[in-house]
């Protein structure tokens, strides 16, 4: 019980210390191979509870620059992670799979999400799933996308 109280106090302190904090990370997606991962931390050094991890498996002909942005609002106990194509450009990559994880499953849950296709149009919500702290494609979905956004709520 005491360790849970200490954990809750530490999490509240973490959220308060990140008020209005934003971090943006540039990364490159290279098609083919074993897939990839981009880590977008809110804090330095990275703290798992305030980090966004984007995992992907893509194919296509071009290497592309992408960005990951994470921001926190401790007043609402929310952290938002957005993964997007640099310069709002079209993408020529096709995703076999992706995963946007916000924080850790024991302290956060994705409460809202959206995905934009390769041309910037919204992807129907039936084509993605919010599962615990993750945004995932619906079973069988593969396609082009240039933005993934997940809003997670921290629970204590």
Automatic annotation (TrEMBL):
Residues 1-20 form the signal peptide. This is Uncharacterized protein. The keyword Signal applies. Pfam families: UPF0556. Keywords: Signal. InterPro entries: MYDGF. It comes from the Eukaryota. It comes from Rhodosorus marinus.
